[in-house]
Structure formats: C-alpha cells, structure tokens
Prior knowledge:
single chain; Aldehyde Dehydrogenase, Chain A, domain 1; Aldehyde Dehydrogenase, Chain A, domain 2; six-stranded mixed β-sheet; 16 helices; globular; Aldehyde_DH_dom; oxidoreductase; Ald_DH/histidinol_DH; NAD-dependent succinate-semialdehyde dehydrogenase; Aldehyde_DH_Superfamily
Amino acid sequence: xxxxxKAPDLFGAIDDIPSLGRPAADRSFSVFNPxxxxxxxxxxxxxVEQTRAAIDQAYKAQPAWAALTAxxxxxxxxxxxxxxxxxxxxxxxxxxxxxxxxxAEAQSEVSHAAAYLQWYAEEANRxxxxxxxxxxxxxxxLVIKQPIGVVGTITPWNFPASMVARKISPALxxxxxxxxxPAEQTPLVAGAMFALAREAGFPEGVVNLIFASEGDMIGRExxxxxxxxxxxxxxxxxxxxxxxxxxxxQIKKVSLELGGxxxxxxxxxxxxDAAVDGAxxxxxxxxxxxxxxxxxxxxxxxxxxxxxxKFVEKVRHLSVGDGFDPGVAIGPLIDRHALxxxxxxxxxxxxxxxxxxxxxxxxxxxxxxxxxxxxxxxxSAMAIAQEETFGPLAPIIRFEDAEQVVxxxxxxxxxxxxxxxxxxxxxxxxxxEALEYGMVGINTGRMSxxxxxxxxxxxxxxxxxxxxxxxxxYLEIKYLCMGGI
Length: 485
C-alpha cells in the first residue's frame, strides 16, 4: 500500500472479494502508481468464468430490483451518494495514487461522481409514461417504460471514479442491474466505491464488479451473453467498433462514448485572456488525457501571434509532478505507451515544419512525466492534426475566416466535443450550429455536468450520459392497447 493512501479501511475492502458479491479468481495482476512505479495492490485477475457468474447474479437480482418502488431505489442511491461524500478525501487519495492526476483534480472528480449519484437518485422518481388519444371510445392506449435488464459496463482509466457513477447510476435508477469492469490500470477507486455501494444497501447481485488485466475476453462475454441486454462503454473508437460488432448478432443495445479530436477555435473578437485561460483548462486538465481535451487549437490570423505569446507564457508556468505534491498542475501520463505517442506526434510535426514553442521533452527517468508542450506552424498533413494525442501537447493552427475554420474543424471522423471563443452574437449562433459535434463549449473550456447530456456524433459514439436523456438510454418503451373498455 502506498504511503499516500489515507483510507486503509476502504483500500482493504477491495481485497475482500466475497464482501462485494464476486467470485474469487486464481490469478492476480498488479496495480502501480504511475508517478513512482510503486506497487499499490495485487488484485484477482478474473476471466470468463467469473464474468459469467457475475452476469448470472445480476440476472437473478434484476426482477426484484426492478420491482422496488422508484422511491426505494432512490433512497439507496442517496445513501451511496452520501457515503461517497463522507469518504471523498479517501477516494481522491486512492484515485491520485493509481491514476496520477493532481489531488485537487481527483477531489473534483469524486465530487462529480457524487453529483451523478445525487442527480439520478432524484431522476429515479421521474420515469413517466404517457396516454394517447385512442381512435375509438372502447380503447385506451398507454405507454409505459421499463428497465432494459442486465447492463454490462466498461469504464476507462482517465476518470475512474466519475465514469463509474456516470454509467451505472442511471441504470440503477431505471431498475437495471450492473456488471462493471473498470480499466486494469485504475481499478482501485472502483473497488472502494463498490464497497461503499454494498454498505449503502444494494441487494446482493445488483452491483457486480469484475477485476481483470485484459478486457478482450470480458468484453466478448458481456457482448455474447444473452442475459446481458445492454453494453455501455467508454474508450477508444477502435474498441467501440469491435464491441458494436460483437453485439450485432443479438441486436443488443449499446451506449458508446468514444474517441474525440476536439477543435478549440479562437476568433478575432474573442476576449483573448479568457480564451487563453479556457485553452489551458481544455487542453491540460488531467495532463490532456480526456476524451474532450482540446486537440487542435485554431486561432484567427490577426490575433494568432498575441495568443501564442500569452498561451506559451502560461504553459511554461504549469508545474509537473507527483499528484500528491503541493502546487502540481499536471501529473504523469498513464503509461509509457502514452509517452511514446506524444513523442511520435512531436517528431512528425517537427519533421514536417512544425515549431516547438515550449516543452517537448520527458521529465526525469522515473515515472511517466512529460513537459506541457506547444507547437506552431501546424498543417493538416501532420499526424497531430488528424489523431487524438491524449497528452499535454497543444498544436496551434492559424486560420483566416469562419467558413475555413468550421470546415477544417469538421473534417474528421470524430464528433464528440468542440470549443470556440467569440463575442459577436450572430457568429456565435452560426458557428455553434455549424460545428458537427455532440457538445459545444462557447466561451468556456469546461462543460461537463450531471444535468447535461454528454456524448458525441459520427464515430465518437452513440447515446448520451447525464441529464434525463441518460436515464432514457436504460429504459424500454412498451405500448399498451386496452380494448373492451
């Protein structure tokens, strides 16, 4: 156990496999701190047999869970929310230890996770049907909504607490049961949250957790098992395509929140200082390891140079280090594969004429730290303009007019998030409507909220999480026609 962890009771609960209602496994895998390389835990490495057993438990528990009143399900979600709030500092410490993000960001993420539980505890009571005017006097036509059933969920490593809550809280509110596999790099905070879920009073089999070092066979079982009625996945577009194909034989419902290539556009009528601050937030939060991270920064030609000067100056002062150290703004990348990708994007850009304004190097030999980096003289021929970097690398692209930049911003298979800064109201409306993205931040670098629908279009995903729309994704619509009335 790392010296930083302040929650041995929660941390120890992760090892108590029977207490979480999950079968034991013979194999194990290791979880490491990316800042120090320190071993944090050895966890049971589960496979198809354990996944199938968890699905069976969820399938058996689902009818009784769905039969509870909305208020009863809501009360348990509220209790879980309160336990998350009560243990927020401990959960944040676990999160920072296994993922590396600065402790303040981890605390914010845990708060965000609790907000989703609170929101869907409330939304559980707002699952409404409807009546339809019948074509004859002897009929009544109704619509009711019922839970889909067992839901298989796979969560990513970059937001290991908030993604757990965002995915499973609407499902639980709707009356579904859960089998969840967290990312193998960051399973510990999920384990602690599930220990608290058991304490909150979820009946046996309603929430089930699978620890596994490899996701392929777990994903195949979740997709192929007929008892699982829906898959919810956050991760890469490549894996999302694979899961969608695996679900197709059973016409299984899917919710997919996949890759992004977010543009961040600064027009010449923008508040320049606000745009710089927004770009810092949108690009470097979580070391750039977010699906909505600003991946391409477009700045209008007349203000390009001024923006670069201000932006680079702020980037130079971003502190990189262990997430537990005071004042750290950027933690490590998740692993050495992430380091290699950012280095390859920089090398490709420089070879094709790009200029490194600041950063561009690894920091130290231990850990996976990388300098926050700014590149200019970027062209569409560079990999960085076409691919998601998922790291603290900001390429700045000069543009001339709105028509040009909207075309370039939309010229991608992805459509998750976009940002732009402008003051002219006509421009704001026109650009917001023209950008082909599921979410658009206008004069802000951060827009995620439990009250808003989170999700993308094109190859960035299917479905929405958060808001009332997130609840609808876990409900089936049933039409009732009553004759002889």
